[in-house]
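Lab notebook page, bench 4
Experiment: in silico fold of construct C2
Operator: M.H.
Input chain length: 174 residues
Purpose: comparison with the prior construct
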Amino acid sequence: MSVPKDRLPLRMISTVVRGFQRGSTDLGIPTANLDRESGKFGGGSFDDLPTGIYWGFCRIGEGEESFVYKTACSIGYNPTYNNTLKTVEPHLIAPETDQRRHASTCGETVLGEFYGQTIRLSLVGYLRPELPFEGLEKLVAAIKKDISDSVALGDGADELTLKEKSWVASKEDI
């Protein structure tokens, strides 16, 4: 099942909170988990967000140091782990020229810890449904493909992509 195009983009503003720590420890692919209680979620509630894997843009923090990153993002229950709590977990993707780009154990971006900071997230496109995987190797391979697809799609120059990248960089409300 895909998400209807009229539901996209999915815009969110929240605070980064500690997750289950599996992205960093089990998979080597850290995420900046959104707080379900403090956030604004595109005109609806956290629980109304459609599950799946998405691509888009996000920014952590404010001011001169903030940067708009491409992102691959999971919304859902992490079926490989049988979670009962829905999460929103964007993985920030540094530019190819950034020295942090290949710093983690699986070859993806490690940017630091962002707990307590504001995150602005726009999910522009749907990649695939959440799926259970037999083993972490298959899950990591799927996430790496999601990251690669997100990088390619984030390079687009269509009106929606440019508009959402600009919104993430702004201070405009949802």
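Observations: The first helix runs from residue 22 to 25. Residues 4 and 126 are 9 Å apart (CA to CA).
Next step: discuss at group meeting.
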